[in-house]
Design a protein that fits this description.
Order of helices and strands: HHHEHEEEHHHHHHHHE
Family: Belongs to the GST superfamily.
Bound molecules: glutathione
Keywords: Fatty acid biosynthesis, Fatty acid metabolism, Isomerase, Lipid biosynthesis, Lipid metabolism, Membrane, Prostaglandin biosynthesis, Prostaglandin metabolism, Transmembrane, Transmembrane helix
Main location: membrane
Subcellular location: Endomembrane system
Distance between the termini: 40 Å
EC number: 5.3.99.3
Length: 324
Amino acid sequence: MRRAQQYVLVNGRSVLGNNFYNNNLHLAAAAASMYSSSTTNNNNGGWSRSRWFPPSSPSSGSVLAGAVSFSAVAASSEIYAKEPPPINLLPKDVVLYQYEACPFCNKVKAFLDYYHIPYKVVEVNPISKKEIKWSDYKKVPILSADGQNFVDSSDIINKLNHKIHPVGSAPKDDAEENKWRGWVDNHLVHILSPNIYRNPSEALESFDYITSHGNFSFTERITAKYAGAVAMYFVSKKLKKKYNINDERASLYEAAETWVDALNGREFLGGSKPNLADLAVFGVLRPIRYLRSGKDMVEHTRIGEWYTRMETAVGESSRIKASE
Ligand SMILES: N[C@@H](CCC(=O)N[C@@H](CS)C(=O)NCC(=O)O)C(=O)O
């Protein structure tokens, strides 16, 4: 088990000090805490059709091109089909307490989606946190399943992974997989905030996403969007220093290239199917993929093909919509 490591990615308390909690910035900090990340690593241990991001809008190609690409997608989705666990091993009554844009929560969702485990989502209000009042643990994700509560994204995934694999067929502890899962928690997540809040327009784009998907009242939403964008723009500059990031885009591209190198020609780190490291990298990148930074990353690195394979492999979300 790796050493528990605490770090503050965008937590206003440590980065900006007490003044940060004045007035609207309190709200912004709370919104921003969706990307705050105190990581405790522990690697040992009717369904909706919703997506968090709209897929990039299809270009107006010809009907023929459309038909060809449709059959290509159909063929590839068979190749990278999901892996539904045996029905008797499916965890029941799964509820994920989350922030929509939180990278750790998105790691868990990538796992649930890939294994076709239906789950409800409770969007936590980052300011009041009233939805998790019952819990002593005050971060997200928190997952309840089969009447038990689990905390910490890696731990949640480990426990679920054990649950869904029949005795004797549990995947072996894989050093390479563990190494890259650790890389996600200890390296990749640090690079995200400096990128998505890189300049005022990107900070606004990110907060537009965060506040439109998060659990905010109308006034909170407006305040959090603008105050949050301003605050996080400055916070992201501090984070760059803290994590020795000179050029945030260069670091993002480097991380993407490092990951592609790790694949070493394989379709997935797990070979012909994604493993938990593939799901972790995909999970934390999913909230940024269609933001400016994610688009740049795909344009300037070789990660795009793997990412598209992952989108196909993970497929539709198994999230249960509130109305269903
Ligand atoms: N090690 C934890 C980190 C969880 C975490 O730091 N979550 C952030 C949201 S991304 C959080 O809840 N921060 C505290 C807050 O919002 O007050 C995990 O992997 O689940």
